[in-house]
TrEMBL record:
Domain spans labelled Carbohydrate kinase PfkB: 15-302
Organism encoding this protein: Succinatimonas hippei (strain DSM 22608 / JCM 16073 / KCTC 15190 / YIT 12066)
CDD domains: KdgK (cd01166)
Gene3D superfamilies assigned: 3.40.1190.20
Source organism superkingdom: Bacteria
Family: Belongs to the carbohydrate kinase PfkB family.
Keyword field contains Thylakoid: no
Bilayer-spanning residue ranges: none
GO molecular function: kinase activity
Protein name: Kinase, PfkB family
Lineage summary: Bacteria, Pseudomonadati, Pseudomonadota, Gammaproteobacteria, Aeromonadales
Pfam family, one: PfkB
Length: 317
């Protein structure tokens, strides 16, 4: 087992509609926790890895829910900062039987949006081996962009392996041009980049996974794994390029969180010393499992559940 994984992001309260229909006409919601980096942290911890999470929470019901959920999942919360000045962000998610759900955020001016370089300065990264970043936290404010910049520098100085998922949220950026420039700038500094083929259209000008991988290898990333939905993922590493086929599932319930499950699979596999192809195979499995659950992270498996799924589900040909 590796030394462990550190992440930073904005976890939010998640209100999931209990019936289908527009968000303004739904009569009831169930309560959960959302956030891309939170999902990866949860998956890593459930698979038995030392996992720490940096964020800032408000002193409010959503903040308390998130803090309790971190502890319940055995995620190290010693990097969590609390403030009475701002509230914790939250979001609404519609219930759908096909297609992607409707999402609405209440996160402007949130506690996490004030995360700063000063908050990062106090953190010692030397007890970790891996850091996972996404394009969401730097999208929030100038302050969070500076925090991510310093995190990357401190992690690099401490010798951590850096993975990066673009996780595009265009509505959070001032413009598409700013988003593309910043995201690709971060990707160029990562050891591994995990784009989706759909994101490639905006970030690389193509949805062809071979071209996406070539683009990010050209920027300097050592390894690129482009997610291709249910088909699997295309891996470029050194002079090797190969496809890892996805798993067949009976029914897709909700695709939200599948990419985060994928990232969790790759990273935990790397920390366990698995060959990269096996890491990506695990990633495809966790992504598929997550698609069979309504919540953003409820499906993330234990080692036993993951083993059972991989032994009982066929791969796409």
């Amino acid at each position: 087992m590796g030394k462990g994984l550190v992440l930073a992001g904005e976890p939010m309260g998640l209100l999931i509609a209990q019936s289908e229909g527009p968000l303004d006409s739904v009569s009831g919601y169930s309560l959960a926790v959302a956030g891309a980096e939170f999902n990866v942290a949860t998956g890593s911890a459930r698979l038995g890895h030392k996992t720490a999470y940096l964020t800032k929470l408000g002193d409010d019901p959503f903040g308390k829910l998130i803090a309790r959920t971190l502890r319940n999942n055995k995620i190290d919360d010693s990097f969590v900062i609390y403030t009475k000045e701002r509230t914790t962000g939250f979001m609404l998610k519609s219930k759908v039987s096909k297609g992607d759900p409707e999402i609405f955020y209440f996160r402007k001016g949130s506690a996490a949006s004030t995360l700063s370089a000063e908050d990062v300065e106090k953190i010692d990264f030397s007890s970790f081996s891996h850091i996972h970043l996404t394009g969401i936290l730097p999208a929030l404010t100038d302050s969070t962009r500076e925090a991510v910049k310093l995190m990357l520098k401190k992690a690099r100085d401490a010798g951590l392996y850096v993975s990066f998922d673009p996780n595009l949220r265009p509505q959070l950026w001032p413009s598409q041009e700013v988003m593309v420039e910043y995201i690709n700038g971060l990707a160029a500094q990562a050891d591994m980049v995990l784009p989706g083929d759909g994101e490639g259209a905006i970030l690389c000008g193509t949805t062809d996974p071979h071209e996406i991988n070539k683009f990010y290898r050209g920027l300097g990333a050592k390894t690129v794994v482009t997610k291709c939905g249910p088909r699997g993922a295309l891996v470029s590493d050194g002079d090797q390029e190969y496809m890892v086929n996805g798993f067949v599932i009976d029914k897709v319930v909700d695709t939200v969180g599948a990419g985060d499950g994928f990232a969790c699979g790759v990273l935990t596999g790397l920390m366990e010393g698995l060959p990269l192809e096996k890491c990506v195979e695990r990633a495809c499995a966790i992504g598929a499992i997550q698609c069979t659950f309504v919540g953003d992270n409820e499906g993330l498996p234990t080692p036993e559940q993951l083993k059972t799924f991989m032994e009982t589900h066929a791969r796409r040909s």
